[in-house]
Amino acid sequence: MRWGIRLTKRAVKELYALERVLVPNVWAVLRALLEDPDAANIQTDEDDPSLYWLAVEGDIAVFFEIVDEEKTIVVIRIE
């Protein structure tokens, strides 16, 4: 079973607010994460250990949760 991705309403709104030239960078990181979530250079959020984040070129961070049971990555926010 392949991994899937879901974006919260907040994440979609923040993705639309990014400069258009930066959006492909975010999608490239998310596609790499879908290929192998364990191989990605993910960091644990200091305030919430169930939340992870990845740095994206352009000074962007993507915060997400991994739902192993559903093989789903839920993007919570994009800053």
Would you write up a description of this structure?
The protein is an alpha+beta fold and 79 residues long. The chain has one domain: 2-Layer Sandwich (YaeB-like fold), CATH 3.30.2310. The chain has helices at 9-17, 23-35, and strands at residues 4-7, 43-44, 52-56, 60-67, 72-78. A hairpin with a 7-residue loop joins strand 2 (43-44) and strand 3. The longest helix is centred in the middle third of the chain and has 13 residues, at 23-35.
Index terms:
79 residues, 5-stranded mixed β-sheet, 2 helices
Tally of DSSP helical segments = 2
Number of strands: 5
Helix content class: 25-40%
CATH class: Alpha Beta
Cα shape: globular
The biggest beta sheet is recorded as: 5 strands, mixed
Q: Tell me the β content.
A: 25-35%
Number of domains: 1
Rg result = 12 Å
- Order of helices and strands, N to C? EHHEEEE
Structural class: alpha+beta
Widest beta sheet: strand line-up = 1-5-4-3-2
CATH-defined superfamily: RelE-like
Low-confidence stretches: none
